Amino acid sequence: MDPGGQRDRGLDLFGGVRWIDADLKVEIDPENPQLAGRVLDVGDDYLDAMLGARYTWAPSDRWHITARADVSAGQTQGAWNASLMAHYSIGSGRVLLGYRHLEVELESAGARTDLAMTGPVIGYAFAF
């Protein structure tokens, strides 16, 4: 971690890969014996190329606010991610508080699945 925090500020563009290991099993077992039951078992690995941007603003020496967005495509039908995080520097790292949204479209064995994960993020990032 940069003591003055200068490297942690401004706009960063990045690229890389996103690996998703999805395992979803849905079993439909109707109570009516005239209706047929069905099992949907989708389990696969997906590897996408990813591009994104991150902007960090530091209103003080200890506080940083980061907005991040990225998109990816490849083996999935497409994915995107957006987050807004506040970082508070203490000791050998940072406390992280924020919100994240991730959407992915997957297709496996003829079944198409839209997956969305949204919610708060709380964590600690260690600096080495």
Overall description:
- By secondary structure, the chain is mostly beta strands.
- 0% of the residues lie in helices and 75% in strands.
- The protein contains no helices and six strands.
- The protein has strands spanning 10-28, 38-57, 63-74, 78-90, 93-108, 111-126.
- The protein has a six-stranded antiparallel sheet, with no helix packed on it.
- It is elongated and about 65 Å long.
| Overall body shape | elongated
Radius of gyration: 20 Å
The largest sheet is: 6 strands, antiparallel
Please work out how many helical segments DSSP would assign. Answer: 0
Element-level helix/strand string:
EEEEEE
Helix coverage percent: under 10%
- Which range does the strand content fall in? over 45%
Which ranges are low-confidence, i.e. pLDDT below 50, for 5 or more consecutive residues? 1-5
- Kindly report the average pLDDT value: 87
Beginning-to-end CA distance, first to last residue: 8 Å
Indicate the structural class. Answer: mainly beta
Strand line-up of the largest beta sheet: 1-2-3-4-5-6
* Structure summary, number of beta strands: 6
